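Suppose a classmate hands you a notebook page containing two proteins, each written out with its sequence and a corresponding row of structure tokens. How would you begin to make sense of it? This section walks through that situation. The first entry is reproduced here exactly as it would appear on such a page.
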Amino acid sequence: MKVTVLFLASVGSAFLSTATAQLHLNSVFSDHMVLQRELPLPIWGTAKSGDKISVTLGTQTLTTTADTQGRWEVTLHGLEANKSPQSLQVESSTGESQTIRDILIGEVWLASGQSNMDWKVSASHSADKALPQSGSYPNIRLLKIPRKTSYHPLESTRCQWHIAEPEHSARFSVVAWHFAHQISQKLDIPVGIIQASWGGSRIEPWINTEGFQKNPSLRELHQFRKDRTPGTPEYKKAGEAYLDQLTNYTELYKKHLSSPELELPTPPLAPKTLELGNQTFGLYPAMIHPIVPFSVRGFLWYQGESNIHDGNLYYEKKRSLIQGWRSAFQRPNAPFYFVQIAPFRYNTSPTHLPEFWVTQQKCLRIPHTEMVVTNDLGDPKNIHPKNKSEVSRRLAMLALSKTYALGPMVRSPLYQNFQIQDNAILVHFQKDQALQSRDNKALTHFEIAAEDGTFYPAEAEILDNHSVKLTSPSITKPQQARFAWKQTA
């Protein structure tokens, strides 16, 4: 019998060793970047351990010393928005220096998710790609984080800021691009947009360790991850136990060869390793952590198609993701605006998608979040709705009203309560704005049921601008109501 032992080497730090290190800024800092206005600005990088580092931006100059790992960081004071190009200069006591040019000061957002956020301008329909392809937009700057996975947090990744010119816009997220354009136009200041997305990705690979640790509801999932991640104490302990078991088994096997009557136990199994991938693990360490704690205003999120079977558990995962990201970026109240996934004929139970919509709406309980509804934009035959610029417009309206206090709050109607009145159910909505149908036609997709739970299509009438009256000739004593309770609604 041949016994094979597999040893997995842990992934090392992305820092250069201090023996060979030279002065480096983190790669998130490059020519043509945008720095977040009016917030503290962490600037960091690597150098030889003990080197004195001086960082200058405008009238500010701060100094620090590279630590024993060669890492250094300073935090500049927030600046006012500025369209005039600035320079960031970093100098070392060894005489090395690095200068970043054409820096603008404005608003910075991080856009993430799966394929609908990842969808490129070049792959969009003509109406959505006309503007990005029409010329250069010097006040919009784009940073796309490369797709990568890692078991352990990487300290840097290869990325480069670009001016929003047709060549670079073509490869960028169409949702993120149009959001940046509308914010820049309305505020008349520079906007930097960071894209870190991966088609088909589940939410779990984007959640950091801190997000898991803060949520007892995900304890089992967190333990599962720790037990199978090379480098964790749990994985190391399991590996040591396996080697001990293997040693014992090998001794027994030797005895078995000379005394075949001795019965052999089942061979020990090596610790299971969590596979890296956009469905499992490794996106946060490789795609988000390398730019932490870069100063951002907030986050945009368009994801969920790969998690529609999660039901209520998705709420806990989203809560962990938001808490973890806010903590990592040192922005505890940062706005987090997300998109409710659109209608589509999934090959699954007909109720999975409506139940998931309910869970996505439940995520609004998390402070400083808002949701864009897209059930009027979807195509049940296409999981990637074409009208991406309208999704961007709705995200931008939320940001402009809630983050920047420009205009009234703009959101889709939110349920408040209901009452039964004779043969009708009155559904009351929050009074942010008067109710109306998008196309000024009769309301559809409402249903009501009696106690037996058999639902019938309901005639829906808007009352007093904030309520909807539901009736059906098939029901005289309605007890239940629902809306859009099917995949194609």
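The notebook's second entry, a different protein, reads as follows.
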Amino acid sequence: MRRVTCFAAGSTGERGATMVMIAASSLVLFGFLAFAFDFGRMYVERRELQSGADAAALAVAAECATGGCSGVYDPYPTAEQYADLNASDDRAWVPQIDLDLANQQVTVHTATEEAEDDHFFDSTFAHLVGYDGLTVGADATAAWGAPRSLATLPLIFSMCEWQTFGQSGYVDETPPGYLHHSAAVKNNQMPPTTGYPYASIVAKIFFHGTSSCHYSPSGQDLAGGFGWLETVGWCEANVDIGDWVAVDPGASPSNGCTPGVMSAYVGKVILLPYFDEHRGVGENAEYHVAGFGAIYVTGYNFGGQYKRNSLVTGSRPCTGELRCIEGYVIGDWVASGGPIGGPNLGVIVIRLIG
């Protein structure tokens, strides 16, 4: 007689099948976790590479903006330095830099660089399931050029002053042969503190006096004006090239420019607009904005409490009824942000555009 063997539920055969399913499911789950972990690391890697590309592009643009790209120029050492500084392991690869001097743009490409000096992102777990990873990369484009719009001190200069103190020949430096360099400003200090060789060549710009740049018979840029512009509470004016900006009439500084605020500008570089035309008189007067410049302020006299002795001579830059500001006109000052598209009057803007 044959015997029939019956297997009840939960027997050894079904338990074996269940173990196979659990093992397969675990392998799939482990694979997902491996990919999730390594893709998370890749995300961090790409974020660091993007930060490095941004910093490197801005650094190379800054060198070009200040004349460092002339002649034989290798942007890779600067780019690699900033790319490495933004990597948590101090390693990043710069495989390519596209430098367009004609359009004043630079694109920096960054990518993975491992300790083994390869450029393949090493996965921690994913390679256990057959995925070997890839080269992670990023890129950034920065542009430089004269600004079209800036936030400045609400004090405007005449283009006549630029022709007197800014154009080639006023300061006989080499290179590039004109103006004062931003490199002379160290820790917000300039001559005579830093021993700058051109400390004696300082500009003195009058807003009420006998300067040939004044168009009004009373010795002002325009009747009733001393160069001050209207503000909105703070000692600042937001101006665009081509705009007509309203005058803040009278000799006293604009609203918000308290004696303490003005005093803090001495020994620092300030940004100022230049005008090429004016119209009207008194409260109805306006200046036409032509461009932007930079000046390292060493002293001023605007009357009343608005007086600071010169850092160069130790005495007032002007006295009596004269109103003036003294300082070094800077020819290559780099400002951050803002749209590009104006004439170069000493200020350059650097910004990321991609």
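A careful reader of the second entry would note: The first helix runs from residue 12 to 65.
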